[in-house]
Design goal:
The chain has 468 residues and is α/β, with parallel strands linked by helices. It is 35% helix and 20% strand.
Length: 468
C-alpha cells in the first residue's frame, strides 16, 4: 500500500514530512511524495494521503483547501489526514469539507510516527478503516506530550541534502504573523542531541545539513543556555566531515562573533535574512526587533566574513499604511544591499493577528505594481549574482532526481545543471559532494547556471573514469 505526502510551506514542514515518511517506510509502506495534479488521474494504490499545511498567507490556505478536494477525488479509497499550521488553527473548518478528512493538529504531527507503528500494512485488509483511524487519532490528540522534536530522520525521499530541525516556535509578536500562533512559544533541541543526530547523518554519508527552525535567532539550548552562535561553534568542534547551511536568521543575530565563526569553510556561504521592509516606520508597525540600519550592518558584516556569499531576504509589500515613500525606502535598501534573491510577498491579512484589524490598507492596483517592481529587482540582482560566479569553481551536492543533465546545488546556493555526467555517473554521485566549474549563465526558472564536474587536479573530465 502507498502512503502519499503533500507538503506546503517552509523547510520545517518539509523535514517533518520526510521524517513521517521514513516512519511509514520502515513499516513496509511504499512512499509517494511527488506532487499530484488533476492530470494524474485516479490513484487506486494510495491507501492514505497526508497533507502538511501552511498558514503563512491566505493563498497558502487556499492552496491547502484545493489540495484536499483534489485528493478526495483522486484517491477515492483513502482517508485524508490534514496536519500542519493551518490544521492547528482551523482544523474544525477543514474537517467539514468531507467525512474522509481527518485533522491531526500541527502540534500533534509527531504522532505520525506512532500512527505508522499502530497500522502496519500487515494489519490492514487492503485499505485503512476510516472509523478506526479517526478513533486512534482522536485518542492520541487528547494526550499531553511534547512532540516538537520527535520527527527526525537520516533518510530523505524528496531531498538530496539533509536537514535537521533544531528549534520551533517564536517568542516575538510580529503584528502580521499567524505562524507563531500555530507553532507556539520558542523551544530548542539541546546541543548534545543535535550533535548526536548530526553524527547519524554523517554515518549515512551526508555531506551537508541544513539547520532549520521557525526562528533560529531564538535558539537557546535548554541545558547549557548557549545561543545559536555558540551552538555553531560547538557543532564545528564536535563533528567532522559535514558542512552546515543555515536556513534563516533575524538581522540582529549577525554580529562580530557570528561573522568570525562563519569564516569556517564548514559554514556554507548562503544566508537568508528575514527583513520584511526597509522602512523603519513599517518595521515598527510590524513589531520587528531591528531597523533598516541593522539590516545594512548585518549584510556588510556577512560579506566581509565570506566571499561569493549568497544573501537572500523576505520582503512584505503593501503592509497597511505603507506609503509610496516607505516602499521606495525598501526598494532602495534592497538595491543598495544587492541581495542575491528577494522573496516577495504581498501583504496578507491573517485572522487572529494585530495587523488583521489595521486600517489604511493598500489598494490592489498599487499592491500589484509594487510586487512587480520588487520582483523585477529580485530577478535583476539574481542574474547579476549568477553572472559573477561564471568561471569560478564551487563545491556542490548532486541531486537525487533521475534526470539528465544531472542537477546540483552549490555551496552558495546556485542551482546548476552538470553537463558532463551520463546517467550512470549521475546516479552514482547522487547526494555526494563534487567540485564544479560554473561555465554558463542559464536564464531559467529551474536552474541558475550550467556547470561541469572537475577532478581534484582541476582537469575537466568528459567521463569520470574513477567511478565508472
Amino acid at each position: 500500500m502507498t502512503i502519499h505526502f503533500e507538503t506546503l510551506g517552509c523547510k520545517l514542514n518539509q523535514i517533518e514530512s520526510e521524517s513521517a515518511a521514513k516512519a511509514f517506510y520502515d513499516q513496509g509502506y511504499i512512499i509517494s511524495s511527488k506532487n499530484l495534479t488533476r492530470a494524474s488521474g485516479t490513484q487506486k494504490d494510495i491507501g492514505l494521503a497526508i497533507i502538511n499545511t501552511c498558514t503563512v498567507t491566505g493563498k497558502a490556505e487556499q492552496k491547502a483547501r484545493r489540495l484536499i478536494n483534489m485528493l478526495l477525488d483522486l484517491c477515492p479509497d483513502a482517508p485524508i489526514i490534514v496536519t500542519g499550521c493551518y490544521a492547528e488553527l482551523d482544523g474544525a473548518y477543514l474537517e467539514e469539507i468531507d467525512n474522509r478528512v481527518i485533522i491531526l493538529p500541527g502540534s500533534k504531527k509527531g504522532y505520525l510516527t506512532d500512527l505508522a507503528e499502530a497500522f502496519p500494512p500487515s494489519s490492514l485488509q487492503k485499505k485503512f478503516h476510516l472509523e478506526n483511524l479517526k478513533e486512534w487519532i482522536d485518542t492520541k490528540t487528547r494526550e499531553e506530550e511534547n512532540l516538537a522534536f520527535r520527527l527526525s530522520t537520516d533518510v530523505f525521499f524528496s531531498h538530496s541534502r539533509a536537514s535537521l530541525k533544531i528549534q520551533d516556535g517564536c517568542n516575538s509578536a510580529c503584528s502580521y504573523c499567524r505562524v507563531r500562533l500555530a507553532r507556539g512559544k520558542a523551544i530548542s533541541l539541546d546541543a548534545e542531541t543535535i550533535c548526536d543526530r548530526i553524527r547519524e547523518l554523517i554515518e549515512k554519508g551526508h555531506k551537508e545539513v541544513v539547520l532549520t527552525g521557525i526562528n533560529l535567532s531564538q535558539y537557546l539550548c535548554p541545558k547549557t543556555k548557549m545561543g545559536f552562535t555558540a551552538l555553531l561553534d560547538y557543532l564545528i568542534k564536535n563533528t567532522d566531515g559535514i558542512a552546515f547551511r543555515i536556513s534563516s536568521l533575524y538581522p540582529q543575530s549577525v554580529d562580530e562573533a557570528f561573522c568570525e565563526l562563519i569564516q569556517s569553510e564548514r559554514i556554507r556561504p548562503h544566508f537568508h535574512l528575514s527583513v520584511q521592509s526597509g522602512s523603519d516606520k513599517i518595521l515598527k508597525a510590524m513589531k520587528r526587533p531591528y531597523n533598516a540600519k541593522k539590516v545594512s550592518e548585518a549584510v556588510h558584516l556577512i560579506r566581509k566574513a565570506k566571499e561569493d556569499v549568497f544573501i537572500a531576504t523576505d520582503i512584505i509589500v503593501g503592509f497597511p499604511g505603507e506609503s509610496e515613500e516607505d516602499f521606495l525606502e525598501t526598494l532602495s535598501l534592497c538595491k543598495e544591499l544587492n541581495f542575491a534573491w528577494i522573496h516577495v510577498f504581498p501583504f496578507s491579512a491573517r485572522p487572529g493577528t494585530e495587523a488583521f484589524l489595521l486600517k489604511n490598507t493598500i489598494s490592489a492596483e498599487i499592491l500589484q505594481k509594487r510586487v512587480i517592481l520588487m520582483t523585477e529587482l529580485a530577478k535583476e540582482q539574481k542574474k547579476a549574482f549568477v553572472l559573477s560566479q561564471v568561471g569560478k569553481k564551487r563545491l556542490a551536492i548532486v541531486e537525487k532526481r533521475r534526470s539528465i543533465p544531472a542537477r546540483a546545488v552549490c555551496d552558495n546556493f546556485l542551482h546548476v545543471e552538470l553537463s558532463n555526467l551520463n546517467t550512470k555517473e549521475a546516479q552514482m554521485l547522487a547526494g555526494q559532494e563534487v567540485r564544479t566549474l560554473i561555465n554558463h549563465y542559464e536564464n531559467s526558472n529551474k536552474i541558475d547556471a550550467r556547470a561541469c564536474v572537475f577532478s581534484e587536479s582541476d582537469v575537466q573530465l568528459s567521463r569520470l573514469q574513477e567511478i565508472t
